[in-house]
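Write out this protein's structure.
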Amino acid sequence: MQFRHPSDKDDVLRTKKDAFKIPEGVIYLDGNSLGVLPKNVPARLAEVVEQEWGMSLIKSWNEHSWFDLPLRVGNRIGRLIGAPEGSVVACDSTSVNVFKVLAAALSLRADRKVILSDNGNFPTDLYVASGLAELLDKGHELRVVAPEEVEAAITEDVAVVMLTQVDYRTGRLHDMAALTEKAHQAGALAIWDLAHSAGAIPVDLKGAKADFAIGCGYKYLNGGPGAPAFLYVAEVHQDNVTSPVTGWMGHEAPFAFDLDYRAVHGVNRMTVGTPAILSLSSLYAALDVFEDVDMADIRKKSISLSELFIKKVEEKCPQLTLASPRDPETRGSQVSFRFEEGYAAMQALIARGVIGDFRAPDVMRFGFTPLYLSHQDVVDAVAILADILETGSWDRPEYKSRAKVT
């Protein structure tokens, strides 16, 4: 194997790229939005469809352990986010899980009414919090501050601190352990959204003493579009909370068909309806690639890739302004640059085979997935970006026409 960029020669993760199906001629810098298809997933999904569903039919709930799949997937994810076995379950969507864990957390702090978040949080989390406060109709307030003001805003009237660990727009990284400790000192609980963390950076939920967490399966975990999300409940809370949506999968004896609801012990009480077996099977198979991977190696390479990207962009693309934190220790596995015509420039870049994405009003966002990106990919991507900016080839009507998804 030839290595054009010297850093690729010593890359301990370089063979992992072979586990993914990446179109020829594409440099994919959008794994923070939708992960690449792992090559083992189609065969596994075909097996589930043709053999399990097709041949075993309803017997598969027992014969192929479909019933336990949410917890089995959760345990695999748990290993990547510092969560003990039996504390993570894969189910529903991220937004639904935000609703469930936030309602559960508020029930544990019934005497307090403030939900604290920041304006770098993913908007849907804020929408869910606002909607839940309105639904509860008990005087709850969603208090939103700037990310750097969160610590000072954790006062004794706060019930729950609800934050996204890695800012979806800039990649800014919150200090989970420090902010969780501050929340606990003030008598509040901490909920962490790991949508841009799980599979990308080392996370230690137990070590940080986080109370709850949620995240999605389709970004760095490569579970596919619409892959099930996951949620975490610290062991200390598991038997003290109940999902606000009390469905039969969270019942202690779902096939007794009792008319009264009794929550099962453990994190499974946060499940609701029949699990999405095909999607869960895809996600379970996609997680195979992490089995022999150390998250410390992923983080080391992520920083190396992103530092190289920033260096090259600032050398060759003076039209762009760094929007992400410069210190890699305070940044997740993505880099964002501001450019007034960022949407058009990103469309021109995609047309040249370098895929990132755009976040309004002017952010060009680039994700770095160490499992399938090389340092040479970074060098090549920046060369194409520089050419687009230098020639002004982004300045075309077709690149300025906004699509539904940016």
